């Protein structure tokens, strides 16, 4: 693994004069080729994209320029995402797949797999079975709270499920694509417990808002807002959701602020993402649910 303390890339040296690279973050950029050069003089013959986001593959053009015959492997949906916003710094994949793809170059094998909606369309798991390494970018952040809004994941249910999917793999080393170290199976379990706590607390908080009394009761909270903002439904929702998110962030923070780094930075943002997912994906609407 190569890291600058903020982003991470992976590479494998084969015994047949070639190198396989996974991702090429722009903050690492040309240093990735330099670091590979400190290990071997073999060229990079294959590169895999974990997904399309520029912050993880914007230096792919630099890697590709080092070998005009390079093969770039990605999920078909990643290729579609890149085609929507063509970028010479992120060359189009030369090989795509739908469900799984095994890349074997002599003594090195990477198993690539798509397990459904998660961070973005085409987002894949990258497994090195021989080395027992799993790379999954933008889901688990070993030792840290997830990035803002649960790492900006497009499917929070898929994001939660990903923790179980990760633990189904045989690995001892986890590469999450961010920050300053690799992870372990226990790091995955710790974040899984945090995310489940966030979900449970969000469900609880929305339930409190449906009660007749209490700090989150809309019966007490919203009438003054409606009076001050006649006919403005967005004002009502802003106050209501703001109160629920604040409650969730503070409650979860009492259990996690001293356990995961950065909880003081993204605790509120992650609570907001989970509250919205609980409402819209799981249908827990509290006082705004179906009237009986």
From TrEMBL:
SMART domains: Lactamase_B. Gene3D superfamilies: Ribonuclease Z/Hydroxyacylglutathione hydrolase-like. It comes from Extremus antarcticus. InterPro entries: Metallo-B-lactamas, NDM-1-like, RibonucZ/Hydroxyglut_hydro. Residues 7-178 form the Metallo-beta-lactamase domain. The lineage of its organism: Eukaryota, Fungi, Dikarya, Ascomycota, Pezizomycotina. This is Metallo-beta-lactamase domain-containing protein.
């Amino acid at each position: 693994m190569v890291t600058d303390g903020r982003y991470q890339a992976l590479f494998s040296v084969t015994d047949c004069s070639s190198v396989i690279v996974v991702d090429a973050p722009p903050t690492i950029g040309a240093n990735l080729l330099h670091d590979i050069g400190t290990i071997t003089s073999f060229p990079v013959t294959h590169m895999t994209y974990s997904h399309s986001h520029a912050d993880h593959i914007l230096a792919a053009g630099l890697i590709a320029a080092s070998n005009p015959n390079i093969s770039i492997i990605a999920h078909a949906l990643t290729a579609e995402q890149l085609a929507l916003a063509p970028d010479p710094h992120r060359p189009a994949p030369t090989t795509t797949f739908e469900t799984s793809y095994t890349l074997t170059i002599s003594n090195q094998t990477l198993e690539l797999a798509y397990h459904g909606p998660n961070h973005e369309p085409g987002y894949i798991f990258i497994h090195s079975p021989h080395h027992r390494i799993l790379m999954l970018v933008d889901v688990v952040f070993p030792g840290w709270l997830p990035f803002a809004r649960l790492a900006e994941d497009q499917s929070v249910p898929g994001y939660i499920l990903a923790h179980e999917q990760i633990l189904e793999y045989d690995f001892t080393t986890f590469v999450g694509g961010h920050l300053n170290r690799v992870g372990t199976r226990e790091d995955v379990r710790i974040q899984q417990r945090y995310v489940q706590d966030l979900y449970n607390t969000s469900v609880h908080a929305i339930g409190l808002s449906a009660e007749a009394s209490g700090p989150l009761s809309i019966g007490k909270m919203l009438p003054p807002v409606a009076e001050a903002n006649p006919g403005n439904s967005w004002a009502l929702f802003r106050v209501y959701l703001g109160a629920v998110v604040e409650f969730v962030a503070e409650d979860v923070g009492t259990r996690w602020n001293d356990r995961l780094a950065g909880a003081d930075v993204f605790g509120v943002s992650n609570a907001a993402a989970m509250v919205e997912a609980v409402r819209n994906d799981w249908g827990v609407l509290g006082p705004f649910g179906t009237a009986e």
